[in-house]
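We modelled the chain as a single entity of 562 amino acids. Its sequence is:
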Amino acid sequence: MKEHMPLISNTKCECGHQNPVGTVLCEACGKPLDEKEWNSTANLEMRYDGVARRSQRVSPGIIDKVWNFFSSVKVAIYLIVLTLLGAMLGTIFPQESTFLNIDAEAYYPQTYGTAGNIYYRLGLSHTYESWWFVTLLVMIGASLVICSLDRVLPLYKALTRQKVRKHRQFLTRQKLTLIRPVEEEPEQWVARIEEPLRKRGYRVKTDGGALLAEKHRFSRWGPYVIHIGLIIFLLAVLARGLPGLNMDQHLAFPQGEAVKIPDTTLYLKNEKFTVEFYTDEEMPEEFRGKKVLPKLYETKAVLYECTSGCSDPSKEPQLREVAWHDIQVNSPLSYKGLKAYQFDYDLTPVLRSVQPDLVNASTGESYGKFKLEMKGSQRSFKAGPYTLELKEKYMDFGLNEEGRPVSKSPYPNAPAFLFLISGPDLPAEGQQYFYFPKQVDKEQFQQNAINDKLGGGERFLELEVGSMTDVDFAESTTYLNVRVDRAMPFVWIGAGIVMLGLILGFYWQHRRIWLTVDGGELVLGGHTNKNWFGFRRELVSILEKIDMTVDEQSLDNGGGLA
């Protein structure tokens, strides 16, 4: 929590040093600058060495007020709590992103009732992509940056400009203090204690009869290293929402077909899909004859990169092989940050292309075949003297609430095509014709009735499939989870920096010892940011090296160590 600092008008110390407004302890000698503190005996607040911070300005402007708001640790805690509560709300029901293909507006009320409907209407079904959740993350990031700058810059200045000789009140109000008479000359006594301090790893500076010993200053930066790691972590998380940096899609790849991966120039081809099942002997007894469990399913995949004709639907894309891999569960294909994981499979044959024959409905005369690919981009076909223009294509034909034809999915489950046929004995504007390649779809959706209506009750031409050799099926379909997460390395870098900061802060302590020998009296003060008991034992051990016996408890100044 941000400390309360008195507003003082005169910040010049008796030692002659002019301190910035907001300074609590003189930057030169360490004497308290607040008049109320001059006669106090309480331990000094040494968290930031009493330095002035921007958030303590006497007459803040608008920018300073914003700075003060975000520099408050209390505000940071409130923001973190609000973010945690928001994250908890997002876990009440599954997020939309956890499903493949659902109508969220219908799914939540049907599955979870009124509570699910309210959950969806409030936008909680996509909590982690919502504007308010992202705003909270941005505010936490701003708080981390400003909190750090408000403290680390003044603290760095104070620690790098430390004076050796300190005011007596600064020394006697440290948590560890010692006042003893000495008979030696000040310089001689200081020279004797210098060697055992150096052996303990202290960096020692002297000024006549004064000494400053310090070690492990780097541990003071542990919390700020953590802040840097958290900032990188938050930026990486937010960056995952930017185009091109993150993708997580479940795509179908029929066997033998190269399918374009959305928002990339890459194509992936399922060369062959293989599935093996457990035999009854390999199955647990309770499952025998009841379940069929896959033992292994594998996709022999080839990844291509488009080199030309990539964005022109009228041209055949030119592909160059860049990677191949036998994809199994937990063994994805990986290429430049893209990973394709085995997700599911379907052994139902999938229609890839058909070669219908254009015939005269009355005489049965054939005008020729043409190849119609389910996922092809060709829009015009020739059959004898007739031209067929593809007007609409429905990969998974269905009717919406208004009775209009729509495609329910991008997969060729029930393909349908609307042609405009032009040629001899047809109206000048041409004749519309609806075509369903699958016989089951012809009957279900009543192809003949639709075409009778389109032709005014008379059908002059028809599309027919002569034999099964004119139909090409993919034997199976594999479903792959294709992921691209270019921000993830930065997430790990941020987490690693956080761990480094934790190690710096936990395993080392910043320890400082100030002492002056003047007029036959030793005045010593010691400070550390944690592990006071260990510091006290170390100080006693150092004093023993120069034949000064001190009781540990006598070093405690202020009624106990925390």
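As a brief sanity check on the tokenised model: The chain has a mean pLDDT of 86. The chain has four domains: 53-159, 163-216+510-555, 246-349+477-485, 356-464.
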